[in-house]
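Submission sheet (multi-component)
Chains listed below:
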Amino acid sequence: MPIRKLPEAPPSVHILGPTVFLVALGVGMGESYMWPRLVLLFGPEIRWLFLIGVTLQAVVMLEMARYAMATGESIFSGAARVFKPLMWFFFIVAMAVYIWPGHLSAGAAALEQISGIPWMVTAIAGLILVGVVFSFAKVIYNLLESVLSLLIGTLVIGTAVVAAMVGTWSDVVTTITGMFSFGYLPAEAMTAAWFPVIVGACAFAGPSGMQQMWYTLHLRAAGAGMGAHIPKVRGLRHAGEEEAMPSRGFMFDTDDPAEMAKWKGWRRWVTFDALLLFWGITMLVTISFTVIAQAAVRQNPAVRTAIQGDDREVALTAMADAVSSAGSSALGVIFLGFIALIGLNATLGLFDSFSRGQADMTYNFVKGAKKLRMSHLYAGFLWGVIIFGILILLFGPADGPSGILDTLAFLSTFAMGAYCVTLLLVNNRMLPKPIRPKWWTNLIIGFGAFFYLGMLFYSLFAFGVVVG
Amino acid sequence: MIQRQSLELALPGASIGAGAGAIAGGLTLLAGQPAGLAAQSALTLAVPLALFGGLYGILLGRGIFRPGTFGPVGLYWMAGFPLSRLVQESLTGVGLADGVLPFLAYQLMVSLGFAIGFLWLHERMMPHWLLRHAEGNPRAEALLALYIRQAQASQPRSEKGARR
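Outcome: structure written.
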């Protein structure tokens, strides 16, 4: 790779940055539904698995950032440098998993509960709106970072105020102490009915599937590290203003102490993001939702039965109804409002990330694609996934959105194990020695591959069920 | 004049605090409580949160806080948020039934989450607000210059460097 100067890291541990995408994508069904549900079923002690899952994701985030900030390339390009079919594997997995509009339906269904507007109308209107807004944006990243920051900020403040008003000290103590009950697995959890559900919930602790891989594209778009030398993707209307995209990344001089000092600054910056923003917010939202769910069961024990069923919409409605019927109708509405907000965040983030990732791989590795601009490819994938999503919503599988999410959860887990292996290969083989990961980081990422793939295949062989 | 300049800096933080308090009011109103009680619940949380939020903006303008840094803001709200909730619950609620200490300990934990959300929104609103008020307000102008320096430092890509 050509050598360029590494820019200075931001002067302070600054709270704004690309982590907002990871938080927007990561704080989803796992945090608001799957884990509160498991806590109600198996007790707060089951949360030790959540702690492992989210902490593992924080380390994965740091390692994804290592390659992206050192080269300005996405992890997909890194995978292609190691073994090109590996990159195509992720291209195909993304197409298979993320073209389904399942993530949209949960939020839209929650909105239907509040407003009465049929969820399909909201979902289709949302899809078209996302396409139009992204097509008109001058620099898509800037627009999306602003919008997501406002939405996530509102979600975090709102969740904090609601949790402050409905929760108690004992709720939060049991929720937190449960996180340290390492090894706790009740007999019921080790059954064909529930183990696959636990595997799915572990995959949905924090960002699931390929979301961490897309984070490398957002780091680049934010100008983090060597990403500063790569032009930004523009909306279709401003595609003509886009600068030529280089066909490869850049590297800084790792023998120069001044450059290495700047590199350490960037690592500090991203570590702050991983620990405080990503880990902290994910924990806060999950603990808050668990406290809300515990309050719901206290007020109406029937909610526990409803949650045991595997229909997500029924369970979410039951949780909302339970708190409403116990004299706190506001909590029900606010609970559903947050589910809708989470759905909106995920939709905005996913559509952008999917299009960004597929466009990046197509531009760099499909012959003749460079005749187009990155913005054109981005728009092509964006509108492709929007039109497909509308068709599926109108004429899709009869078993509805929950079925879509189940398939997503299965493939997500496999992709997560696969990206841990990819990370080990890319960071240890493609980066210069001074900036390669430490042995203990490799150990954690190796454990990640074992954690995701091991649980997936154990579930498959022991129970004959892949993921719930 | 100096007071007006400081108050202008206080407005974004005060608005966020007041907005968060309004959520509490909405919660009470939708819970079927009389409008008067809902307004009281909103007001008793919104006022202290707005005061603390506004004070943050003023202290930011005086250089006591640095834009976007979390640590000091986290500590600030670890004091501000539990106190605000204490005021609210003392005047309108029943949250103190378990005792003041468990109540404050719980609020202390939640306050860190509130601090992240507050800072996130504040960092989005403040630069836009400063752009509109920098003219004629030296404090706003100085703070805006600080934000611009930070933005430039974190977006260092030169036109030349961007090309192939």
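Remark: Chain B touches chain A through 53 residues (CB under 8 Å).
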